[in-house]
Amino acid sequence: MLRPLLKKQLQTERRPSWKLTQRVVEMAASASGEATRIMLAVNESTIKGYPHASISCRGAFEWILKKIIRSNTCDFKLLFIHVQVPDEDGFDDMDSKFASPDDFKKMKHRDKIRGLHLLEYFVNQCHEIGVACEAWVKKGDAKEIICLEAKRVQPDFLVLGSRGLGPFQKVFVGTVSEFCVKHADCPVISIKRNADQIPQDPVDD
């Protein structure tokens, strides 16, 4: 009963209020008595490319730290997923998980996975402030893979950065966050970019 209730509450607002967010976190924590597991989908910048994170996912990460975790670093675990578009890089091992900076140093095929450097940024940030985390790469269609991974991992909730595109722009680009809000098997929080962060072309991120 808890998951449908949380999902329903989060979907009542396009940009979650502070009170709503706190209520969701408190309900998730009290239900399990364990660390609240937050899944965050991250992607590369369309402006700078790898290994730079997009404006929206970086903003969503900062929002989690500021609004949810704050100083309670021991009460949360962040789960980072990056979905890489299938290509011909010849690297098929997408099951490795990374929980500390040292894990990246041990990766023999480090330079063959473009998304690895992207994940390393977020894992390093978590390591510096003492937040437990895991990160992994998958290949495929981002919106479908994120939903499948959310179903497999069962986080307390999923956080996604959003470009906040208008209806006309969505027709041509489509949005991962909108799809996941409708289809993910867990509560979803979609965080829009701040107005002062939007590039000249809002489709860029």
UniProtKB/TrEMBL annotation:
Sections of the chain in a coiled coil: none
Gene3D superfamilies: HUPs (3.40.50.620)
Pfam families found in the cross-reference section: Usp (PF00582)
Domain UspA span(s) in chain numbering: 54-190
Domain of life: Eukaryota
InterPro entries listed in its UniProt record: At3g01520-like_plant, Rossmann-like_a/b/a_fold, Universal_stress_UspA, UspA
UniProt GO MF annotations: AMP binding
PANTHER family given in the database record: ADENINE NUCLEOTIDE ALPHA HYDROLASES-LIKE SUPERFAMILY PROTEIN (PTHR47710)
The protein's name in its UniProt record: UspA domain-containing protein
